[in-house]
Structure formats: C-alpha cells, structure tokens
C-alpha cells in the first residue's frame, strides 16, 4: 500500500486502520503478532489501532491461539453480531428489506409489493416506513446500524446516490441517498441492483477469491455487474454492464428502449413469455397451456421451467434458445473483458442445465482461445438472497475501505 503518497497523519492512520480491519475480517481470527507480520506495521502501531477498535467494540478478543514458544497469543475477530446493516433491494414488482450483521447474515427481512402507478415520492415514503418497521421489529439501537445499502434497478448515479432512471417503474431522479440520510442520520449507499449483486457474490457468494468477475442477472430485465481488481466498474456514465441492450439480432423484436433485437427482448421474462405465446397462438400443444389454464398472461419463467422438467418440448426449446442467446452475449463479454469467472443469477438461473448447458456450449464453440474456453460459468451462490446481500455489501465495502472515516464525518 502506497502510504508514502498520503501526507496527512490522520489519513495514514485510517489507512492502517482499514488495513488491519480488513485483515481481521478476511482471516476470521488472528493475533496481533500475525497482523504485524502480514501488514508490516510495527507492533506498537498494531497494538494502538487494535486498542481503538476494541474500544469501539468493532473488534473483540476471543480465545487464545496456538503458542509459538512463548505466551499463547489472544486472537482477535470482528464483532460482527454487535453491529447491523440495513439492505434494501428495489425490484420491478417488489421491494425487499433486511437487517443483517457484519457478515451479511440476514437476521430479519420483509417484502412489499409495489404498483406500476406508484410515484417517486410514494416509493421513498414506503421505503422509509418499512425501514422504521424493520428497526422496530428487530429491536436494535439506531447507533448500532452502520448504514443503509440500496440496490435499485435501472440507472443509478452511485456517487451522488441518485436513482437516475428506473425504466420499469418509469421513475426519474430520486435522490435516495440524501433523503434517507436526512431521515435516519445514517450513511446511505445507492447502487444499481445488479452491480450490488456482483459485489455480494464477490464477498459472500460464488465470486469469493476472484479479483475479476462478471455477474449477470436475468429477470424482468437483464444486466451485468462487472468487478475488476476487486472494484466495481461503472464506465463513464454508469452504463457499463447494461448488456440487456446489447444487440444480438439486428432484425429482432423491438425493445422497450426503442432499439431492435436487444438481448433483453429475447431472453428476459417478456422474451420467454412472447416466445411461448407465439407458438401457443399457432396452435402448438404444450404443457405450458395446461399449467396456465389457457391464460397466456400467466406464462412465466417459473412455469416454463416446470413444463421443461416434465419433458415438454416447447418449454425445453424456449430455454435452450434463451441459453444460446445468453451464450452469444457472454461470449462477447469474454472477448471484451476476458473475466476468469461469470456468475448467472436471477429467476432464470433456476432453470439450471436446461439453460446453462446450451449457454456453455455456445461460449465453448465461439471462444477464441483455449484459455477463453476455460472461463468458469456458474450459478449464483447467493440465489434469492443476492439482491439483499449485495445491498448490504455496499456498506461493508465502505466500512472496510479507506473512505469510511471520512464519510462518516460528512454525514
Ligand atoms: Zn433495448
């Protein structure tokens, strides 16, 4: 770490502090002597900072560790159960809330439906009300809440904490961060939901141990969170990862964005639904019709998967085609960013081999080199928790990084 470029003593101290906090967190349990060895900080520096962390109850002393000759060392660990984080996952139809500890373990959660007609003000009011209810139910002191992390679908200005545009809700410019910080007087972070998920997977899911990865979420929309060198990559205007609007068929169907043949129109929820509808209207016999009792509005990814599991040809075909389109998009990503690992999440990832096998096949076939063929493609490790754990990780990332102290002072 480049301590020498930072002039201010305070800043260096907080840099060392976050370094120590991070090492305790990633080690699970560690002694002061080991911290000094790993960080190359002097033992008195480590002792002083650890003393501070113990006073703040961020770190606790546990049992003694194995002795290397002398006195048995006292092991330190993060006091994860002493502090809380609130996670909010704003989806297209539902908003999920959770209280977690510092290991992103969900202690309590709630879920509310939202309507398409809801206004920006109503959404913020609902979020505030639900957070109050959750804090009350969980019965936790406000001073122990380290922050509120929000994963919001659509385009987000993460730096200013503004939801710029949520297409499916048709909402614009919601200053979530400033509104919630004014209400709760706790740090608030806002990020695009799929980017938050990618962070969650990197810290707690299928991405553990990978510095670079891409997490793709396929649900009502489709997006990707890109992590490079352990950091989220957002691009110049926060559009990086909007793979739902990359074109995979020049003559494809019209997309909600106005363009044609976007990946989203062929693979996301509506893409699956219209593929099934088209065949049913043409008179094709399928289990999907039986499962929906003839009501095409009831067709969903879940039902298509259910039909596929019972051997329905059309359902299997639809999932295979979806897998192939996703495979083409992923093969593009492999050739642009060359990540070692790609994680697939969202409702569709539950279709398992029906979708993943053709997807992987396309990537294998199109990969340029032997190494590209080795790109690991896996399902989300967090499953349904991915959105909430991701939202919470936004706060954890900040807590365990250099920014934390500076940021707390500005709130
Ligand atoms: Zn589009």
UniProtKB/TrEMBL annotation:
The record's SUPFAM superfamilies line, in alphabetical order, gives: Actin-like ATPase domain, Winged helix' DNA-binding domain
Describe the location of the HTH marR-type domain by residue ranges.
16-59
Q: Which UniProt keywords apply?
A: Carbohydrate metabolism, Xylose metabolism
Q: Which domain of life is it from?
A: Bacteria
General function of this protein? Transcriptional repressor of xylose-utilizing enzymes.
Concerning its family, UniProt says: Belongs to the ROK (NagC/XylR) family.
Quote the protein name from its UniProt record: ROK family transcriptional regulator
Its source organism is: Metabacillus sediminis
**Upper lineage ranks?**
Bacteria, Bacillati, Bacillota, Bacilli, Bacillales
